[in-house]
Amino acid sequence: MPEGDTVFRAARRLHTALAGKVLTRSDFRVPAFATLDLVGRTVDEVVPRGKHLLHRIGDLTVHSHLKMEGRWDVYAPGERWRRPAHQARVVLDAADVSTVGFTLGVLEVVPRDQESEVVGHLGPDLLGPDWDSDRAIGNLTADPARPIGLALLDQRVLAGLGNVYRNELCFLRGMLPTRPVGQVSDPGRAVALAHRLITMNRDRSNRVTTGVDRPGRRFWVYGRAGKPCLRCGTPVRRGELGDSELTLRDTYWCPRCQT
After folding, report:
1. Residue 84 among the catalytic residues
2. Is 67 a catalytic residue?
3. Locate the FPG-type domain: which residues (predicted)?
4. Among the options 9, 49, 51, 166, which is catalytic?
5. pLDDT of 204-231, one tens digit each?
């Protein structure tokens, strides 16, 4: 599931593959940009912003978001794609490399000086060079009645966390996801832990929050409904939490370790 660490690694792969190179192919397979041709332009950089990817190409920015199923692949010229062609939304190639964005939840091209219109709403980026913990804490505590599990997923509060980290953070801080933010004893520690966890995982192929990189042992509660809590043995419970039916996401918690 793409979260901030996954997007960070994707941006690094794409930057390594494309930065400083002239595009030899530009194929946008979405109606709004089907006629756009970036051939001959140089890719300046590819950077992550929370869960968003930004290809900066001259005075333009290709903005994409993986959502739940998207991915960017990097191939050698002529190499067979690992996903079917009908899932490709954009192809950006240089002389020695081919990059393909598959099933992207968002794909658009905007003037580079207007990037703020597509990512300006985001809170501090947990993996960004300008990470601002004080601002993140202020955003988190701005609505004391809001459940902590909803606030942590809100990209306007802090950018980069997804459902895995939301559940694991709540467990590690001993909080039910439904606990109001105003009842969290030290929100700053939750923010610090979020930053530490995602930073620790940004270079790993397997996301781990327990310190044990083995199947079935990587997470404390996420995906472990009905299984014994790795700390106390109590069966882990599963529910749903969201601002509306459209935003409901699975929650996992230990009824003994979290209050």
Report:
1. no
2. no
3. 220-259
4. 51
5. 989 999 999 999 999 999 999 999 999 9
